[in-house]
Write a structure and sequence with these properties.
homodimer; alpha/beta; Rossmann fold; 2 domains; four-stranded parallel sheet
Chain lengths: 456, 456
């Protein structure tokens, strides 16, 4: 018997709208606060950083927001992305569960990040912006924004955390291939960068510093804006095309998920696969169990506090209510660089507080083991971040085996690992430690959270 | 107006047969000769190296050979591969030509190589083989055979040229992820390897030596066979699924190519895209111009002799009639490692002699420039090998612009460059030299070709 492996949508079947979960939430998101006044901010406060269309999306409660045709035209370079039935993984696990995965590694950048890089570049271009600044750690986001910039003829300047800049020159080479400029951060191009270098000329950098540098340059110039790859509401919304496509494709397979699994760092790929299903249930549809999988070394959802905090270490960004480990918390240097963030997207945090999702944490050793099992069964070598979702899905499938249930499991394979083979190499060499954060440092970071009166 | 970007086939539309060009050739291939006796060899002479099914495919003149269902079942993990219309590249070039490209980088290994690795593993498994040996340079082929081995539960042992083994540890990490063993060649695991190391303990290795090591181990053990990633007739035939799918997809686009372009190293991805179109014309269908693009630093088709020669430097393999630079010729170390072979597939060489294809050569600088133009327009960063096909297609498109012709150009984008960013980095740093071979060395290698009486 021929088993269908992939469920493909034609370009004409690609969703024409993103899904905005803010329309269906039983309780609105807590306000965003100004870092200076601690008072709720309005759209104008964000105007130096983002074009107004994106700010309006950030606060919109419309359920559907139309994907502009020029964005859809570029999405077609890799979208609709395939949905796979993991026949071989099911067999390898001996599970009665049906496992489906949405594969976002088919994008030119190799991950889900272009889903938001393209519309962000589009709206900026439309607003007359000439240049975008951003930060990147391992390089997935910087690559994707560079790709988007090349298509909309926007100058892109990426501040890459210096330790990654030095260790991972290949990602930088991809950004340069797309015509972007990539600088190690801290740099001497910004006041903040120079101040950090003055204190410590060999500073290895951090995402917090890189954000501050990118923001500093963006606010200085009228023709320059800033772009962020996760966390914000509009970013998460752009990613919902993942789940919306998956819904169509599951119907082709005559299936509907009992469980939806995604990995969480800032929260965007997770929201992309999960929010359409959460919304479906909120509107009275069948409820799926939603599982967020995070790294044990940076466990914002499972060990963080739900509180107001800054998005960056330098305290230049607005405050949002989210699950946070404290903005001064430095996660240990594990390999899923995309998941090394002290906070969590406010929308994902809010859903967690509303009981709409579960969260679990696994060590990187557990996740690489799962990733290798997956690669040997299904062929695709997942990115270290995606291995967290793989691990979550495998655990659900093994539970189904124990319980004798043939549940349907859907997970998001958010990217391939072809840029991350050094991490696999360490795993095979037995050199991959399960990095632990310092409990004392976490307690200190949490006790240092800003004291904010609950806004009216 | 919405422009269609991708032409997708459903799994049910995937070809069920490979195309064997030997059925349509106006003149049969010259015989293969025994390296010792110089007499034509029969199937039994190859039995120590390959399972009989593959040997029969090697000599078959049947037009269609059925793709076994277990092979098709695995092909479905990434096939049918998409055909793209390069709207953005056309616009960037300002050409009236219509450019289509078939993208083989969607395979888990990132290239076309699994198209033959999977059936080779299948036929070996069917014949009771437990272990496959092979050689690899940069690692594309070793990766693909490792992937195939993981799916058919075959042990895979890859001899990787030592200089690549040391310089490109990431490819090795992928092979290990698939459960294969990868050794640097020359190794101390074979008699031949030990003899090389005895003469020069720090020998950097070569494909010729790695082939000899893999062959030596394969003939020693009943349960072990050898697998080759290009050059042989059956390998080229497995790749024809590329062109067969492209034919279906072009018909969806209501198009047919005036020109078909592929890059040539051993000849397999080129044959994969081109042979179905050559056969179509040989059977009386519309004729497309067929263009093989090779590196100027290793120009077997444009500068080599059409003569009998050995496939390896150690002269352990049979002799075939092909375009060769001489088996003792060492190509300079340019970046398209997959195109660094002294010879050319006998079938591709034969078609060249029959006037069925044209060949051109470009320097690596020209090809990287083309690859960057492509990436900035279409998003995908091509492998250095694939850049040769991109360059060939761009040259055809610019000719169409000069001549005011809106011809249809099809080329094969055989793989992505995510493992090759070090080469792009050198290109951007201005450190990429256009490596020249030594004219004297070429003359010497050509004058040293074996003297073989034309067989009856």
């Amino acid at each position: 018997m021929t088993l269908q492996t992939k469920y493909l949508l034609d370009e004409s079947q690609m969703p024409k709208f993103w899904y905005n979960i803010q329309a269906d939430l039983p309780k609105a998101l807590p306000a965003v606060l100004h870092p200076g006044t601690l008072q709720p901010i309005g759209p104008d406060d964000l105007a130096p950083l983002f074009p107004m269309e994106l700010i309006m999306q950030e606060v919109s409660t419309e359920r559907e927001i139309e994907i502009p045709e020029p964005v859809r035209d570029i999405y077609r370079l890799w979208r609709p992305a395939p949905l796979y039935r993991a026949h071989r993984l099911e067999k390898a696990l001996g599970t009665p569960a049906k496992i489906f995965y949405k594969y976002e590694g088919v994008s030119p950048a190799g991950s889900h990040k272009p889903n938001t890089a393209i519309p962000q570049a589009f709206y900026n271009k439309q607003a007359g912006v000439k240049r975008l600044t951003t930060e990147t750690g391992a390089g997935q986001w910087g690559t994707s924004l560079s790709f988007a910039g090349s298509l909309f003829d926007l100058e892109v300047l990426v501040f890459q955390v210096r330790v990654s800049y030095d260790q991972k020159p290949y990602r930088r080479a991809v950004m340069e291939t797309y015509g972007a400029r990539c600088l190690p951060s801290p740099s001497n191009q910004t006041e903040y960068g120079r101040s950090v270098l003055a204190q410590r000329p060999d500073h290895p950098g951090s995402l917090g510093i890189a954000i501050s540098e990118a923001v500093e340059l963006a606010v200085q110039r009228e023709d320059t804006k800033y772009a962020l790859g996760s966390v914000l509401n509009h970013v998460l919304m752009h990613q919902t095309i993942i789940g919306l496509e998956a819904m169509e494709q599951l119907q082709m397979a005559d299936a509907w998920p009992d469980v939806v699994v995604g990995c969480t760092g800032g929260g965007s790929n997770f929201a992309g696969i999960a929010f359409p299903f959460i919304g479906h249930a909120l509107r009275g549809g069948k409820k799926s169990r939603i599982v967020a999988v995070e790294p044990a070394a940076c466990p914002s959802l499972t060990r963080g506090k739900y509180a107001y905090d800054f998005g960056d270490t330098g305290h230049m960004t607005p405050l949002t209510k989210m699950h946070t480990l404290g903005s001064t918390f430095t996660p240990p240097g594990f390999h899923a660089g995309g998941l090394r963030y002290h906070g969590m997207a406010p929308l994902v945090s809010h859903c967690k507080e509303l009981g709409l999702l579960d969260a679990v944490a696994y060590t990187q050793g557990q996740c690489f083991e799962a990733g290798v099992t997956f690669a040997r069964a299904e062929g695709i070598v997942p990115a270290p971040e995606a291995n967290h979702a793989v691990k979550g899905a495998i655990e659900e499938a093994l539970r189904c085996k124990r319980e004798g249930k043939s549940e349907t499991i859907l997970f998001n394979l958010c990217g391939h690992g072809h840029f991350d083979m050094a991490a696999y190499q360490k795993y095979f060499a037995g050199e991959l430690k399960d990095e632990q954060y310092d409990e004392k440092e976490l307690a200190m970071a949490l006790s240092g959270l800003p004291s904010v009166p609950e806004p009216a």
